[in-house]
Amino acid sequence: MPDRKLRLSVMSPARNWIWLMLTLKVPGAAGAKACCDVSSRGPALYDDKLIIATLDGRLIALDRLTGAELWSTVTVDQTKMYTITGAPRVVKNKVLIGNSGAEFGVRGYVSAYDAETGELAWRFYTVPGNPADGFENAAMEMAAKTWSGEWWKLGGGGTPWDAMVYDPESNLIYIGTGNGSPWNQALRSPGGGQLSRRMPSAKPCCSSTSLISVSDFLPRFGVRSNSTSVRCTRSPM
After folding, report:
1. How many whole angstroms from its chain centre is CA 185?
2. How many other CB atoms are there within 10 angstroms of residue 223's CB atom?
3. Where are the domains of the chain?
4. Per the CB 3.0–4.6 Å rule, which of 32, 36, 140, 168 could disulfide with 135?
5. Residue 103, Cβ neighbours under 10 Å: how many?
6. Could you tell me whether strands 44-46 and 17-26 are parallel, antiparallel, or unpaired per DSSP bridges?
7. Which residues neighbour 115 within 8 Å (Cβ) at sequence distance 6 or greater?
8. Residues 75-92, buried b or exposed e (16+ Cβ, 10 A)?
9. pTM of the predicted protein model
10. 108 CB neighbour count, 10 Å cutoff
């Protein structure tokens, strides 16, 4: 597969559409890692920046008028089967981005990058890793009790590949997660596999984030399943 270029459209202050042919080349080999076609769910606009993620796992900020690259960072281990098809979300000067690849043995997470510099601010894993390495937080320690066997050798999945929502009133981010890995639940999590296929909510801070709650849509579901489509929130009546 040949390398691809992205064609994006942005709005100028004069409200005219400017078409930019951006030289954001994506290696064609990255397409082989995508479970469900080569796609992008779009960019985020923040101040004078257009911020977009690429299929091979990069997050790139461009000048929205000229297309000049302002910063670029790799958000995944490119030796593994990660991809990114989701759109970034900007919250409090932080660019949030998830990833894809739960079908192919990766461990899902959400990362937050400084919108001005592209530096990593924090990372929140959606499924637990190898207990021998220690747990990143209490949520992962809790979730690990519901997994079994050596699940970390199979990645764990739970990738947040679709939309994320920020509610300014509660200061919470809502994140939908994808299927666990492997798909066969009996091999990884008879206890439910906490946090995969679920909608965690997390409170963002300047340098870290913490899990607040989890809503389970597909408990003990033993095939490929996703709960990633977080679209909106509403305040209590």
Report:
1. 22
2. 9
3. 4-216
4. 140
5. 20
6. unpaired
7. 46, 47, 49, 51, 61, 90, 93, 94, 95
8. bbeeeebbbbbbbbbbbe
9. 0.78
10. 29
Among 128, 125, 61, which Cα is nearest to 88's?
61
pLDDT, one tens digit per residue, over 175-216 is 888 777 766 666 666 554 544 444 444 444 444 555 554 544
- Stated length of the chain: 237
Domain covering 4-216: architecture: 8 Propeller (2.140)
Do 106 and 155 meet the contact criterion of CB atoms below 8 Å apart?
yes
- Longest distance between any two alpha carbons in the chain, whole Å: 59
Name the strand (E) or helix (H) holding 144: helix 138-144
pLDDT in tens, 57-97: 999 999 888 888 999 999 999 999 999 999 999 999 999 99
